[in-house]
C-alpha cells in the first residue's frame, strides 16, 4: 500500500498482549523475544520480538481494514491515475468511509476540495442520492479532466458533477450558505482551519465535514511532516477546533491517512 495507515497517536494508550502490557508509545514492557505463528500472508514462522509481534498484528489489522471493501476496476484505474500524477488519491477504506457517510445522511449536495483524478469523487457519488450533485474544486484542470473521465467510466452522467477550476479559498466563499450536506477537504493542509470556517458556513444542520490526512499530526507525532511545517500545526489545530466545538460531534477514523469527521449538531454534543 502506498499510503500510511496509522500514526502513533492512533494507537490505544496501552493495551494487553498475551505477554504483557504495551504502552501507547508502542514499547512492550516485556523485552524478551518470543515465537508467534506467522501472520497471515507471511510464509514462515520465525521468532519475533514482542514489539515486532505487536506491530505485525497491528499492520495485519490495518491491512484487513484497508482491503475489506474492495475497489472495482474503475476505482483502481482512477487511483492509479492519481498515483501516477503523485497527488495521493484516497485509499479504499477512506473511500468506503466517505461513501458510507454520504449514504448515511442522504447527501444530495456535496462539496469536495481537491478533485484530484477522481477517486474520492467516485466514492462520494456512489454514496449520494441518485439526483445528488458533487461540486468539486481543484486548481489543476488536467486532473479535473481525468476525474471527469473517471466519473464517466463509473457510469455517472456529466450533470452529477460540477467541477470548478480554481483555488478553493477563492471558490468556496462563492458557494451558497447552508446549502450542502457534506464537505470533504483533501487539499492544502496548511489552510485546514480556514476550510473548517468555510465548511461551517456551507453546511446545513446535520451536515458532515470530513478532513483527510487527519493523522499527519497527532499529539504524539508530527507524522511525515516536521514540527515547524505550517501544515502540521494546521492539521493539529483543526483537530482541536473540532473537538472543542460544542456544536460539532467529532469522529477520528484510522483509515488511509486518517479521516476526521464531524456532524454539525444543533445542540451540545454530550
Ligand atoms: C490529495 S489530492 C486530492 C486527491 C483526491 N481527493 C482523490 O482522492 O483522488 C489534492 C488535490 O488538491 C489540489 N489542490 C492543491 N491546491 C489547491 C487549491 N488551492 N485549491 C484547490 N485544489 C487544490 C491538487 O491539485 C490536488 O489535485
UniProtKB/TrEMBL annotation:
Signal peptide: none annotated. The keyword Transport does not apply. GO terms for biological process: methylation. The keyword S-adenosyl-L-methionine applies. One of its GO terms (molecular function) is O-methyltransferase activity. InterPro entries: SAM-dependent_MTases_sf, SAM_O-MeTrfase. It comes from the Bacteria. Keywords: Methyltransferase, S-adenosyl-L-methionine, Transferase. This is Putative O-methyltransferase YrrM. It comes from Lipingzhangella halophila. The lineage of its organism: Bacteria, Bacillati, Actinomycetota, Actinomycetes, Streptosporangiales.
Amino acid at each position: 500500500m502506498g499510503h500510511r495507515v496509522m500514526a502513533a497517536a492512533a494507537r490505544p494508550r496501552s493495551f494487553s498482549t498475551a505477554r504483557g502490557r504495551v504502552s501507547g508509545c508502542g514499547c512492550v514492557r516485556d523485552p524478551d523475544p518470543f515465537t508467534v505463528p506467522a501472520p497471515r500472508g507471511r510464509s514462515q514462522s520465525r521468532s519475533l520480538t514482542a514489539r515486532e509481534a505487536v506491530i505485525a498484528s497491528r499492520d495485519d489489522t490495518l491491512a484487513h481494514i484497508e482491503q475489506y471493501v474492495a475497489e472495482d476496476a474503475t476505482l483502481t484505474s482512477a487511483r492509479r491515475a492519481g498515483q501516477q500524477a503523485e497527488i495521493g488519491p484516497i485509499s479504499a477504506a477512506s473511500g468506503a468511509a466517505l461513501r458510507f457517510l454520504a449514504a448515511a445522511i442522504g447527501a444530495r449536495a456535496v462539496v469536495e476540495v481537491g478533485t484530484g483524478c477522481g477517486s474520492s469523487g467516485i466514492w462520494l457519488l456512489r454514496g449520494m442520492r441518485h439526483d445528488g450533485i458533487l461540486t468539486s474544486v481543484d486548481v489543476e484542470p488536467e486532473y479535473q479532466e481525468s476525474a471527469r473521465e473517471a466519473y464517466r467510466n463509473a457510469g455517472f452522467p456529466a450533470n452529477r458533477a460540477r467541477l470548478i477550476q480554481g483555488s478553493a479559498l477563492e471558490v468556496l466563499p462563492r458557494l451558497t450558505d447552508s446549502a450542502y450536506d457534506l464537505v470533504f477537504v483533501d487539499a492544502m493542509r496548511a489552510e485546514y482551519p480556514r476550510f473548517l470556517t468555510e465548511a461551517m458556513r456551507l453546511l446545513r444542520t446535520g451536515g458532515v465535514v470530513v478532513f483527510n490526512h487527519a493523522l499527519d499530526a497527532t499529539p504524539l507525532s508530527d507524522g511525515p511532516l516536521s514540527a515547524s511545517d505550517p501544515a502540521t500545526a494546521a492539521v493539529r489545530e483543526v483537530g482541536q477546533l473540532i473537538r472543542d466545538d460544542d456544536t460539532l460531534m467529532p469522529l477520528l477514523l484510522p483509515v488511509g491517512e486518517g479521516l476526521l469527521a464531524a456532524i454539525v449538531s444543533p445542540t451540545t454534543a454530550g
